[in-house]
Write a structure and sequence with these properties.
The complex is a heterodimer of chains A (about 900) and B (about 120).
Chain A: H1 60-74, H2 88-117, H3 127-161, H4 170-189, H5 216-244, H6 257-289, H7 302-336, H8 343-356, H9 372-384, H10 386-402, H11 409-432, H12 434-440, H13 444-474, H14 480-506, H15 523-548, H16 591-594, H17 598-603, E1 617-622, E2 629-635, H18 641-657, H19 661-682, E3 691-695, E4 698-701, H20 710-739, H21 754-778, H22 782-809, H23 818-849, H24 859-891
Antiparallel strand pairs in A: 1-2, 3-4
Chain B: H1 13-40, H2 47-77, H3 89-120
Helix pairs in contact in B: 1-2, 1-3, 2-3
The chains are: A mainly alpha (about 900), B mainly alpha (about 120).
Amino acid sequence: MSESRDVGDPPSRPAGDGPGRNERTSDQRPGDDFSGDRPAVVEVWRERDDVEPLPEAPPEPVQREQRRRLAEVWETPKGIRYWSSVNNSDVGVWYVSSCFIFFLFAGVLALLMRAQLARPNATVLSADTYNQVFTVHGSVMMFLFAIPIFEAIAVLILPQMLGARDLPFPRLSAFGFWCFVLGGVFLCGSIFFGAAPSGGWFMYPPLTSTYTPGIGPDIWLLGFSFIEVAAIAAAVELIVGVLKCRPPGMRIHLMPLYAWYVLVAAVMIVFAFPPLITGSLLLELERAFAWPFFDPNRGGDPLLWQHLFWLFGHPEVYIIFLPSIALIAMIVPTFSRRPIVGYGWVVLAAIGTGFLSFGLWVHHMYTTGLPGISLGLFSAASMAVSIPTAVQFACFVATALAGRVTRSLPMLWMFGAFAIFVLGGLTGVMVALAPFDFQVHDSFFIVAHFHYALIGGALFPVLGGVYYFFPIVRAKLLSERLGKIAFWISFIGFNITFMPMHLTGLRGMPRRVFTYPAGLGLETLNLISTIGSVILGLGVAVVMFDVVRPRRKQATSPRDPWKAGTLEWVQEMPGKDWGIRSIPEIDSRYPLWQQPNLVRDIDEGRFYLPDAEEKRRETLVTSVIDASPEQCQRLPGSSFLPMVAALTVGGFFIFGTFHWWTLAMISLVTGLGVIILWLWTGTAQIPESTTKDVGLGLRLPLYVSGSSSIGYWGMCVTMFADLTAFMSIVFGYFFFWTIHEDFPPSGSTGPGVFWPAISALLIGSAWALTLLARRLNRLGRARAFQLSLACSSVFALLGAGALIAGPWRTGLDPASHAYSATVWLLMIWSALHVVIGVIMHLYCMARRFAGRMTARHDIEIHNVALYWHFTWLTVIISVLVGAGFPLVTGSMP
Amino acid sequence: MSEDLREGHTSLWWVAAAPAIWAVHFLASYGTAAVWCAKRGSESPLSLARTAILLYTVAAFAALAVVALRGLGRYRAATSQHPGDADTREARSQFLGFTLLSLSGLSALAVIYEALAAVIIGSCR
């Protein structure tokens, strides 16, 4: 939407300013930290219109004032208000720490399981406790460690790596974090009351629907849905961060590989998590209200759950794996002292893996009796995905071979990860073959396989990442000696634990059974595994001790201790709250290696945004492909609102678990109020002037609406996730159609045609009026704008009523058949979206009325119009499927 | 600098094109086979469904060729004097061209894998 560009100057680079090209030499300041063991400066071919830093540093008093103002603006609050911080450097540390606490908790559960399995017929844990322990172990490791640790690390270091002051939506990060902690504590806490879920981490019905009374499954379904919402929020943040918050000049082919991986993994979250949220919604509706989605007696099918779960579950393995590989992609070049070999190939591998991993889900369902051709198709995709995986490993090995590898602790962990992961990959190729899988399905062979894949593909790289990035957080290095000890104990302990499990599985021991009889040849293997697990636990304990031990006396780490080349290492030691002193112009992949004097120029404020004259937090927004500066984005400061919003919205899910619906609704409405307050006070603020001089002769707009604004991007990504969740319900509808002879079932009335048609008409009008309102607002016709939105709201509410009236008037009983339940859900889902759209309308009207939105400052109505595009699409699909499809099948012979 | 290297003339969406073609081919093949077998019973031959999958494969190859040619054009258009990591629009365009081309290759391979399943397996058993 180019109309938004007319706010302030068009975002473009100043042409031809700055000194000539290649004038500056690599003369380093005396005393510069950056000398010595550094690769020779790689000559960078530069373009004529490239921008150079200020030739002279500002006078020292000016610099001092700039630093003082930046420090004041970005200062982390003290005392209790510390917890209101939204700065990525604080939230990131909380996030990573909580992930590791959950990891240790789940690790202790693993040791309990191994204690139970050490000897045949042991009674350390009862069968029921054992079920809870393995369910919580798996769920916590997956949902509270493996996935969030990726987002946590990214929140912590991505802004640094991109030379941004913060991520685009700092309060959203904080909100995501608090949701995560609340949901995590709720889930972990349940095991102390013997109320934890016990149906395995993938929660297959009917075990978890018909055969598990109590609240265990509800805790899982609602708790994790809440955490998944937080994960999607973080994914939105990271996608927009990578695409729109890069430093000027960091073109798409100069991005750090880490950013590519984060982009791919975050996009995967947007499309992989919604099917599970939908699945959880269906299962919870069955448990709470007897809507029979998975009950074959009433037209449902448990296999639908398996499809929805693994449609999430397999991409999820790669969502865990790719960001860990990303750490390898950063660490290997650093210690090989050269740029990555085959940058383009690694990008190919990241994108290729991201896509292909969505074609693997049925390989978890080989034994469910699907037709051979279906298995064949998924087996083929499972084979294909190993190609890009191999490509990236080949690039890493080539980088190490082509460079001068220096011995270092992070590299040691990476080599360990290589070794373990390759073994996990090899057994992965074995189980991708359907006939072999039939043999070892649900045995300890599978347990061994995925622990090799996940510990090699995620845990070891993450621990290597902890050693590598620790100085960024604490400005101290972790102990080399303890690190080596920890590595070898963990590596040996891991293999002693899991190597024998291949054999245990091949000898027929099933997973998830709390004990085994003597005399089957399993005793020794299990005992070895248990001993190994204790050794592995010791190794992890050494790492944790090193991380938390007091280190007052230890010297501060030198700046860029590893002599790395990427931007996060320009950080001062210890780091400042403001992140980066001035936002540099980037023209290489490894700026610290390839751009002379970069650190000096950043430190002396010779680049963009060296100051905070207006006492506001700011960062730059740039274009997607070439990172041309587009906007100076004002960022919100510390606030308790995200935390309160998380607690109140979380209350809905927690009270819902116990079926306390009144409290749940009160909590939800309060949460909605808090979120509106947050939006009202913290977003789309009208700046005091249209443009701002960001330095180096560049003026940028302070307010941008429409498709260039980051809020629009955030909304767009969120709505793709929302649409994916909705399409999962539609998938359910057609899944039921394939398995039933007559669908809709004979005798069922369906929602009729009249009411759905009326609703489509009304909601279509509401959508059109929203677009009209956006136009009227731009024309400055405030009253017409208000009238248009008011009419739109009325039409929308009537339309929502008509959506519900369809199945209501025809007497469709959702508890009678899976068909009725699905139709009801389609209509309710669409109607709810329409109602939320009306709330957005009222918000826009109030903003316009209060003067917080004007003809030119119209972010809100642009984003709401975008929301309405998606809502209109949702309604159309609901009506076509609900009312239209029976007409089509009815006409068929 | 030629006109079409400006940012407004390029889009990141193209990067997703080739794997998206694979995804459509994959879903169409799976959907066709699954519905066919669900409606015809587990003993029936794949006959028409098999033909359909092979037709999808031809269509997918045609679409992939379009993407690959576009990528090749971009890749070749940039003169070889710029290294791949140069801070220029040419290098960026070349990189995106390479990405399009290599992703088309990977997707084509994956499509062949899928098609092979339909070649080898002839019934719903």
